[in-house]
């Protein structure tokens, strides 16, 4: 298979939650394949450091990166951010929605307002950015939207109803937008990560009991490393996935294979 299928040269991407972890890994992979990547996060200083790292990774493929700090739950700020990308780069080809908060609480202990806030972050912000990004993508006749969901979408655990609800709904939104936007040249897919050794999961990674449990439950018997998510993002953003839409690509080391 020709490597040009996976080339992203000339493409412009916006990746939310890209200051660290899986978002940073996906942004790095896109730049390494030639894309111009706009990294979103809230901490402007840390985000600029991340953008510098991504630009270094993309140097050989003519990829580069820019920092773009804004709160994805602020609709006006998110709309302005898309406008900024268009003004500076002239187009927007790829959107990766990678924001996700988690709050583990039993049903009786979870306030309704906490659920609303979680859905605002994990679902509504993605819906709004999809809508904003789809407008220029329609005009271009090309677009790739990738929503980062979770293996918590298709399965559930006690005390995690809010997060599971949000991620399950994001999968449904992915399919609905694929049905709506496909005729306009926009492919919409999702990536569902499993257990990755990110900064956010450091406590679990360092816990021997959790790691032992994961080793038994996943086919590969280990934690995923952040850079192992990059290939999935590059594939779905590239010409190699031109006939793929409305799908959820699970990257979990075989965890769901045991259910």
What does this structure look like?
The protein has 259 residues and is an alpha/beta fold. It has one domain (3-258): 3-Layer(aba) Sandwich (Rossmann fold), CATH 3.40.50.720. Helix content is 44%, strand content 15%. The protein has helices at residues 21-32, 44-58, 75-89, 112-140, 161-181, 202-205, 208-217, 230-237; strands spanning 12-15, 36-41, 64-69, 94-97, 143-148, 186-193, 248-251. Strands 3-2-1-4-5-6-7 form a 7-stranded parallel β-sheet, sandwiched between helices. Helix 3 runs parallel beside helix 4 (112-140). The longest helix has 29 residues, at 112-140. The chain is globular and about 50 Å long. It starts with 11 loop residues before the first strand and ends in an 8-residue tail after the last strand.
Alpha-beta classification: alpha/beta
CATH structural fold name:
Rossmann fold
Query: Into which percent range does the helicity of residues fall?
Result: 40-55%
- What is the count of structural domains? 1
Low-confidence stretches: none
As a percent range, the share of strand residues is 5-15%
Number of DSSP strands? 7
Would you identify the CATH architecture? 3-Layer(aba) Sandwich
H/I helix tally: 8
Order of helices and strands: EHEHEHEHEHEHHHE
Strand order of the largest sheet: 3-2-1-4-5-6-7
Assembly form of the protein: single chain
CATH superfamily label: NAD(P)-binding Rossmann-like Domain
Distance between the terminal alpha carbons, to the nearest Å? 33 Å
* CATH C-level name: Alpha Beta
Kindly report the average pLDDT value.
93
Biggest sheet character: 7 strands, parallel
Round the Cα radius of gyration to an integer and report it. Answer: 18 Å
Q: Which term fits the overall shape?
A: globular
């Amino acid at each position: 298979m020709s490597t040009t299928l996976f080339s992203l040269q000339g493409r412009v991407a916006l990746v939310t939650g890209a200051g660290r972890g899986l978002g940073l890994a996906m942004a790095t992979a896109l730049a390494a394949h030639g894309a111009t990547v706009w990294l979103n996060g809230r901490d402007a200083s840390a985000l600029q450091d991340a953008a510098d790292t991504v630009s270094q990774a993309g140097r050989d493929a003519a990829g580069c990166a820019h920092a773009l700090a804004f709160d994805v739950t602020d609709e006006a700020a998110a709309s302005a951010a898309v406008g900024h990308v268009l003004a500076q780069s002239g187009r927007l080809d790829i959107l990766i929605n990678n924001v996700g908060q988690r709050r583990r609480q039993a049903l009786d202990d979870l306030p309704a307002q906490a659920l609303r806030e979680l859905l605002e972050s994990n679902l509504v912000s993605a819906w709004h950015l999809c809508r904003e990004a789809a407008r220029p993508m329609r005009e271009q006749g090309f677009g790739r939207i990738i929503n980062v969901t979770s293996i918590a979408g298709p399965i559930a655990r006690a005390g995690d109803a809010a997060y599971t609800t949000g991620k399950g709904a994001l999968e449904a939104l992915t399919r609905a937008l694929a049905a709506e936007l496909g005729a306009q040249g926009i492919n919409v897919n999702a990536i569902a990560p499993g257990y990755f050794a990110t900064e956010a999961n450091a406590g679990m990674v360092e816990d021997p009991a959790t790691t032992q449990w994961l080793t038994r439950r996943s086919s590969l018997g280990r934690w995923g490393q952040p850079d192992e998510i990059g290939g999935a993002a590059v594939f779905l953003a590239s010409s190699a996935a031109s006939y793929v839409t409305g799908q959820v690509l699970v990257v979990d080391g075989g965890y769901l294979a045991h259910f």
